Amino acid sequence: MKVAVRGNPRVLGNTPEEILAGLLELGFLAPEGAALEAYLNHLEQVLADQHGIRVPAGAAPGERAERLVLGLVESGQLDLLED
Hints:
Helices cover 49% and strands 14% of the residues. The chain has 83 residues and is an alpha+beta fold. The protein has a 3-stranded antiparallel beta sheet with strand order 2-1-3. A hairpin with a 5-residue loop joins strand 1 and strand 2 (11-13). Helix 1 (16-26) packs across helix 3 (61-74) and helix 2 (36-51) packs across helix 3. The longest helix is centred in the middle third of the chain and has 16 residues, at 36-51. The termini are close together.
């Protein structure tokens, strides 16, 4: 899977976990100083509050990461370039 932040030419890709780590590195929707787990929790909250997209509680880490990335695509935050 390959994605890009709207308006940013940098392509992030491979696994959802790598994409989320790249988004954190870019500071995309990231609270200042957030570690990866806190960042994922923050993204879940943003998707739920602003877009009504929910990640199922208890999802396996890989599934959680994939649902977060797809939720960001669905909400228009990321462009899906390749699946």
